[in-house]
């Protein structure tokens, strides 16, 4: 059951209804923020399809994610999202902003990641594997069956020919906001992580919500 948020994490401002909250650690402090983007192609049909990329190198290598990267000097986040989508998988799309996420890591990058999330239902061009990303389609359940806590990886679905969303090989925060993205909701969130000695990111505390 979603509840109106009375206490928001540092770095999140506005009037929100929280959809997923967890962890007992104190929120981490951070001094600088760097801006990033992440873009997803989402197509409702039989089956419903989500385009992800398998990251072959760099930050988040060997995980599936949307297509995106750093916002360069002089660019808006929307311009960066379009550029990264083209660079990483060869397509153009009418991207719409749908989410803002803040990630802070103890023992990892010393800056906080501010990631602007975009989505589109159509695209033009030919999906192309690049040296950074390998695009792949996944199926997801009908939106009517999706709630913020739906485990999309195990839900019985239509479209058996595509694999389900591969949460085991995605960032651990994704399962908390992916249902909102797929449902066409706007969302915000923050997650704090700890990078352990084996190079694994453990989520310490998280908060995700939608505009009230
Ligand atoms: C920590 O949780 C995260 N979850 C998700 N879903 N995505 C994340 C998380 N942390 C970072 N990201 C995303 C944000 C960006 O889309 C990429 C990282 O961008 P990258 O470092 O690859 O930026 P580029 O500009 O493409 O870098 P190079 O061209 O220098 O390789 O991960």
Automatic annotation (TrEMBL):
Domain of life: Eukaryota
Name of this protein: Uncharacterized protein
Record organism: Artomyces pyxidatus
